[in-house]
Amino acid sequence: MTGSAQHTRAEAEKRYEVFHTDCPARDVVDHVTSRWGVWVLISLRSNDLRFYELRESIQGISEKMLAQTLRALVQDGLVWREVEPTTPPQVTYGLTEFGQDVGQPLAELFDRITRRLPPRNAG
């Protein structure tokens, strides 16, 4: 198993030239590190959420931006989407294994930052 993981890593290094503008990996990095992509991945790290639950968990995001961000993350394979055939349809989102793998260091970064910030003044 370790050999195949190393083989996959070596193949990925050959396939992706991340410093070239036409590299597809750059699009994924852009989506993950976009203004809202980080927050979507962090919000989904512990629970699957419906669209409106996700919108409520990320203050300041519009429905349009959430929909665009989710569409990109689903297309990249980081987030899964499930539609329940109800009226109106209920749509649930969660992290794929790839999304969990990418989201873990983001969550750790977020946790480090919030632990290191000085306490907020009450007044």
Short description:
By secondary structure, this protein is mainly α. The chain has helices at 2-15, 24-32, 37-43, 51-57, 63-75, 97-116; strands at residues 49-50, 79-84, 90-95.
Tally of discrete structural domains: 1
Q: Strand-and-helix sequence, N→C?
A: HHHEHHEEH
Summarize the main sheet. Answer: 3 strands, antiparallel
- Dominant shape: globular
CATH-wise, what's the superfamily?
Answer: Winged helix-like DNA-binding domain superfamily/Winged helix DNA-binding domain
Taking all Cα atoms into account, the compactness measure Rg is 17 Å
By CATH reckoning, the class would read Mainly Alpha
| Structural class estimated from helices and strands | mainly alpha
Q: Give the neighbour order of strands across the main sheet.
A: 1-3-2
- Named CATH topology: Arc Repressor Mutant, subunit A
Tally of separate helices = 6
CATH architecture field:
Orthogonal Bundle
Number of strands: 3
- Helical content band: 55-70%
| Beta-strand residue percentage | 5-15%
Termini Cα gap: 56 Å
**So what's the oligomer here?**
single chain
Architecture overview:
This protein has 123 residues and is mainly α. A three-stranded antiparallel beta sheet has the order 1-3-2. The chain is 57% helix and 11% strand. The termini are far apart. It has one domain: Arc Repressor Mutant, subunit A (Orthogonal Bundle), CATH 1.10.10.10. It has six helices and three strands; from the N terminus they run αααβααββα. A hairpin with a 5-residue loop joins strand 2 and strand 3.
